TrEMBL record:
Its EC number is 2.1.1.220. Residues 145-198 form the TR61B FKBP-like domain. It is an enzyme of class 2 (transferase). It comes from the Eukaryota. SUPFAM superfamilies: S-adenosyl-L-methionine-dependent methyltransferases. GO terms for biological process: tRNA methylation. GO terms for molecular function: tRNA (adenine(58)-N1)-methyltransferase activity. This is tRNA (adenine(58)-N(1))-methyltransferase. It catalyses: an adenosine in mRNA + S-adenosyl-L-methionine = an N(1)-methyladenosine in mRNA + S-adenosyl-L-homocysteine + H(+). Keywords: Methyltransferase, S-adenosyl-L-methionine, Transferase, tRNA processing.
Length: 463
């Protein structure tokens, strides 16, 4: 309930909704405390403030406004007599003797405030609104045109993984049998499907990371771990204008497109026509699949240009870039062309395959006396781990064994009293922290790791 000294605000409906409420017998309007307004859907109307006051009661008490509060005496009807001056009490007594008078606020019997969720009743919601608000926890089923990832694992290791486009007459073939695309249509992602030989495959929609690593490619891609590090260095935000030199297979272009959003723009250059075509095809394929599964369209914010960045000054002359990503063999050749279009203090992230290229880049910046400073050179490591229950040779799960009690023996220099105290401490700590479950686990790095690609350099332009 409101306490003395707590300030609230009363809101009253318009006259049209007052008459409607009185005619239907529904006297509920709303009471708002501070900045919260609690009301039912059926009582929505044009709310207007009728004043601020100090009140003692319960938030959510139903109030019907008979007239606008044009004087302090009108609002005082909500206050207990102990908090009202004698002049107001005299006015209240005089006004209360009038028959049919409308010089006050009538309050309905007190009812405790209910949680906000109880006000959303089925009858209060419009049918279209109720249908639109229904959650969809299971997601959308597979339909022709979806990109699907098939995953088959055996003993914690991936034996088969493939990305494919779902078609009405297609078929997924593998060494473990096949699955018809018709059997996949209408099913939800994350389910297991049996092949013609009885092997279970897990089918799901691909993430952007999975699509980039499994899409058809020409040159070697920048792996997502390195792409994420470059985006972190560049500090790409929605609405930024970014330059990419070296489209490659389009992997970095997709991550940049998602980072800058619909309000941003990405200009991607590549000197080779085949790489340019592959990047455009992979970008459009992901964009079509995204729009097929999502209500929000993927922004068409990437401009692919088949031209050498060193000779592309007329194309980028009117554009100022918030950041630059270079993934090319000799980035030091392109920096003098790019630098005039880079905003003051902006970041240029360079992706290189070996440390020799890093040395050549730094020497090029020094010899050309470019107004840039190298802030950091990093190598991103990624290690896959295997964490699984311990299994015996016969396939059964190992059991956790209790520690054996050793024969009482004292270490050199430790008295019996000290030994008893240490045992007591061990018992207390073991009673407080109990292991979860009875199955021991093994944890070790996988015997083979994902491919490593190179180093990332973080540079900033300066005077």
């Amino acid at each position: 309930p409101f306490q003395t000294g707590k300030q609230g605000k009363i809101f009253a409906p318009c006259l049209q909704h007052q008459r409607r409420a009185r005619g239907s017998g529904n006297s509920r309007v709303a009471v708002a405390s501070a900045c919260r307004l609690i009301m039912t859907s059926r009582d929505r109307c044009c709310w207007r403030s009728v004043g601020s006051l100090y009140m003692q009661g319960c938030p959510g008490q139903d109030v019907v406004c008979e007239r606008g509060a044009q004087a302090a005496g009108g609002i005082s009807w909500l206050l207990p007599p102990d908090f009202v001056s004698q002049e107001i009490l005299d006015l209240r007594g005089a006004g209360g003797t009038q028959q049919g008078g409308t010089h006050g606020l009538q309050s309905t019997p007190f009812s405790p405030a209910q949680p906000l969720a109880t006000h959303w009743e089925g009858a209060d919601l419009h049918p279209d609104t109720a249908q639109r608000w229904q959650p969809s926890p299971q997601g959308a089923p597979f339909t022709p045109g979806d990109l699907v990832v098939c995953d088959f694992r055996r003993r914690h290791y991936t034996e088969f993984k493939k990305i494919f486009l779902l078609t009405p007459l297609g078929r997924l073939s593998s060494n473990w049998g096949f699955i018809s695309h018709r059997d996949i249509e209408g099913k939800l992602p994350g389910q297991r499907f049996r092949t013609s030989t009885g092997t279970e495959f897990l089918l799901k929609r691909p993430t952007l990371e999975e699509y980039v690593t499994m899409m058809k490619r020409g040159p070697t891609i920048s792996y997502p771990k390195d792409t994420a590090a470059m985006l972190l260095m560049m500090d790409v935000n929605p609405g930024d204008t970014v330059l990419e030199a070296g489209s490659g297979s389009g992997g970095l272009s997709l991550f940049l497109s998602r980072a800058v959003g619909a309000a941003g723009r990405v200009y991607s250059f590549d000197v080779r026509a085949d790489h340019h075509a592959i990047a455009k095809k992979n970008f459009q394929r992901w964009r079509d699949a995204w729009e097929h599964r999502s209500r929000e369209p993927w922004p068409e914010n990437v401009t692919f240009i088949n031209k050498d960045i060193a000779s592309a000054l007329p194309d980028i002359k009117p554009v100022a870039f918030d950041s630059v990503a270079l993934d090319m063999l000799n980035p030091q050749v392109a920096l003098p062309t790019i630098l005039p279009n880079l905003k003051q203090g902006a970041v240029c992230a360079v992706y290189l395959a070996n440390i020799t290229q890093v040395i050549d880049l730094l020497e090029g910046i020094r010899s050309c006396q470019l107004s840039m400073v190298c802030e950091k050179i990093v190598e991103v490591s990624w290690k896959d781990w295997l964490v699984a229950p311990s299994v015996r040779k016969d396939g059964s799960v190992s059991q956790r064994l209790k520690p054996e009690n050793n024969v009482e023996s004292f270490q050199e220099g430790v008295t019996p009293d000290e030994h008893q105290e240490s045992d007591r401490d061990d018992e207390e700590s073991s009673s407080e922290v109990k292991p979860f479950g009875q199955v021991p686990y093994i944890a070790r790095p996988l015997p083979w790791q994902a491919g490593h690609t190179g180093e990332s350099i973080h540079k900033a332009s300066c005077d």
